[in-house]
Amino acid sequence: MRLVIAKCSVDYAGRLSAHLPLATRLLMLKADGSLLVHSDGGSYKPLNWMSPPCTIAMSEPSDEQREFGITELWTVTQGKTADLLIVSIHEVLHDSAHELGVDPGLQKDGVEAHLQKLLAEQIELLGEGHRLVRREYMTAIGPVDILATDAAGRSVAVELKRRGDIDGVEQLTRYLELMNRDPRLAPVQGVFAAQEIKPQARTLAEDRGIRCLVLDYDAMRGIDNADERLF
Amino acid sequence: MRLVIAKCSVDYAGRLSAHLPLATRLLMLKADGSLLVHSDGGSYKPLNWMSPPCTIAMSEPSDEQREFGITELWTVTQGKTADLLIVSIHEVLHDSAHELGVDPGLQKDGVEAHLQKLLAEQIELLGEGHRLVRREYMTAIGPVDILATDAAGRSVAVELKRRGDIDGVEQLTRYLELMNRDPRLAPVQGVFAAQEIKPQARTLAEDRGIRCLVLDYDAMRGIDNADERLF
DNA sequence: CGCTGCATTTCGCAT
DNA sequence: ATGCGAAGTGCAGCG
């Protein structure tokens, strides 16, 4: 990895056109040829970048460009998408290269998969007498997160989200419509379960007879097993 | 901005738990206190990070940690969300600080806004005799991208996307349902316009009587004006 | 290999 | 502030 702090301007032409006026920024060149342009703020997202696979060409500026103060030109191209990124460097303030090696990668634990596993194990959170039929119940238009039965043995289809948005309600509605045509399943009750449900989503869901269930992830995890804490 | 290349392991506990095994990585400390952990590959997304506002505390390791080879500990916390990120540093290979100043920011030009402008100008792409009523036509549940009339003077509502997905069809469907209840507008014909329309979205749209229109951005831009090229 | 759904999404705009 | 839609989204899993 090569790290360059430089006064530069940047132009990008691809799916959109973008321009960065002259300022001091970090240019990060990764081993795979990709380039990231970072400022000293914002989030983790670079101001501009070029994703691999791409090739970078360093070149001398023309006389005209030199008159504008450009001392160095970096042209980054992506063969497939014809994207083009040009870094016009005016002054290099720092330049260092480092051998990092291959990263073993991130180990994740959590999110929707875990939530689904927990709810499957604690299926009575749906209501007394509920039983799990199966997770990822396959339908013609995709898998329903959880299929269960209520105390009376009627089908219950659960759509799980971390954040319950209107999209999730639409998705569940499509599933329910389809599943209710299946005489082996009908009538199917819908449950929209999430850690947090947006008011609009709740309104839409309840308007369609879909039950809303707010899940307490920490509590569910606490019931599950109190041993898997990180610290 | 402070740049540190270090052999380190990283633990994150927040909405999920994540762990990075010992390896050499770039630690980027931004002026706003945020921290990014980058490897020498992947995309523009860091392996791990902490978003601002957050505070970072450097501390000495305990004797036990020192035995494991840890020479320095960075603890990053976010007051509001109680997220916690811990960097266990084993060896510092590079450490430099740089004054970058405030970035003037990115100037964008393109994507959906431009596509909307172009289609408004070239409204006959919808069909002969079509006329623009207005862009961002406001309804109770949000703005319709384009409202037009066809040759016979009937209303046409256009939903624009760069990539035509099933979500866009659902969105347009909600608009149409609402607008068709308005006697001044009804009957309203729906047009789903995008640079690329997914087969599933097309099927759903056509099943609901919504017309699909694939737009050629480059051609539309070419007709519009051939002067605004960057290079 | 293409499609689908998730994301510690982030970002920007409008209410 | 808050909610909502878009992103040069990236990424992983699965058919």
From TrEMBL, chains A, B:
Domain Endonuclease NucS C-terminal: 111-231
Similarity section: Belongs to the NucS endonuclease family.
Function: Cleaves both 3' and 5' ssDNA extremities of branched DNA structures.
GO cellular component: cytoplasm
Organism expressing this protein natively: Orlajensenia leifsoniae
Keyword Chaperone: no
GO molecular function: DNA binding; single-stranded DNA endodeoxyribonuclease activity
Keyword Cytoplasm among UniProt keywords: yes
One Pfam family hit: NucS_C
Major localization class: cytoplasm
Superkingdom in the source lineage: Bacteria
Gene name of the record: nucS
EC code(s) of this entry: 3.1.-.-
Protein name: Endonuclease NucS
Annotated Gene3D superfamilies: 2.70.180.20, 3.40.1350.10
InterPro entries: Endonuclease_NucS (IPR002793), NucS_C (IPR048301), NucS_N (IPR048302), NucS_N_sf (IPR049173), tRNA_endonuc-like_dom_sf (IPR011856)
Localization of this protein: Cytoplasm
HAMAP family: NucS (MF_00722)
